TrEMBL record:
InterPro entries: Methyltransf_16, METTL22, SAM-dependent_MTases_sf. It comes from the Eukaryota. This is Protein N-lysine methyltransferase METTL21A. Coiled coil: none annotated. SUPFAM superfamilies: S-adenosyl-L-methionine-dependent methyltransferases. One of its GO terms (molecular function) is protein methyltransferase activity. It holds the Pfam family Methyltransf_16. Transmembrane segments: none annotated. One of its GO terms (cellular component) is nucleus.
Length: 243
């Protein structure tokens, strides 16, 4: 019989043999379909997935209810976009950024995974309007944000976010607001606003969003008339500024 140390070593080797290292492509389903979306008089075509699956991390590959809420609001209030510079957080497939490009002078779309984002930017590269730019931005990542601000050192008029918290841990909410605060501070109070299309899925997340906004010295104003049902969920538009 082997020693206890040998048995422990053998058991550890067996455990290591059972560990499967997955390539990140395992978490991406690239079965995209060209889909048409209509918001008021604006017709958009984008590649996206049609349904979710438990086999993949599809957070940025689907069009979520919050994006529909955001685009509906922006299409009805397009004057707030006219001539503006915009940065979108958690752009996903880029549906909001593409709509913004019809009215804005500059649009930067950010996400942690930009594969499908770049695909949709390429799809619209010959359309009229400003050039769409994709940038990698993980919330709280100083290097990512620094690279963006080095290129756009005058900041942005608007920061946009729709359903950007959908599958993230509540512990990530402070990182989101850290990044938003830094972006808002470039222009200073009153010169830049964060428009958030929020869809309520859990009271704990509702509280975390409101709490972090307050702790980061922000005013969170619900836009009158925007509270509505999106699918079977409650949605609302917030305009968030520095105090």
């Amino acid at each position: 019989m082997g020693s206890e140390s040998e048995k422990g070593r053998d058991a550890k080797e067996e455990e290591e043999e059972d560990i499967v290292c997955l390539d990140e492509s395992f978490f991406i389903n690239d079965d995209y379909q060209l889909t048409t979306f209509t918001f008021g008089s604006n017709v958009l075509e984008l590649y996206c997935l049609q349904s979710a699956s438990t086999d993949f991390d599809l957070t940025g590959q689907l069009v979520w209810p919050g994006a529909m809420l955001m685009n509906g609001y922006l299409s009805e209030n397009a004057e707030i976009l006219q001539g503006c510079s915009v940065l979108e957080l958690g752009s996903g497939v880029g549906i909001t950024g593409v709509l913004c490009s019809k009215f804005c002078r500059k649009v930067v779309l950010t996400d942690h995974n930009d594969e499908i984002l770049k695909k949709n930017i390429d799809l619209h590269e010959h359309s009229s309007g400003p050039e769409l730019e994709a940038a990698k931005l993980e919330w709280g990542n100083i290097d990512h944000l620094g690279e963006i601000l080095q290129k756009h050192n005058d900041g942005f008029d608007l920061i946009l976010g729709a359903d950007i918290y959908i599958l993230m841990f509540i512990s990530s909410v402070p990182l989101l607001f850290d990044s938003v605060e830094q972006l808002l501070q470039i222009r200073g109070p009153g010169n830049c606003k964060f428009i958030l299309a929020y869809v309520s899925r859990a009271r704990q997340m509702d509280s975390a969003i409101l709490r972090e906004g307050a702790e980061h010295g922000m005013l969170m104003n619900e836009v009158p008339g925007t509270r509505c049902t999106v699918g079977n969920l409650q949605g609302v538009i917030f305009e968030i500024t520095l105090k």
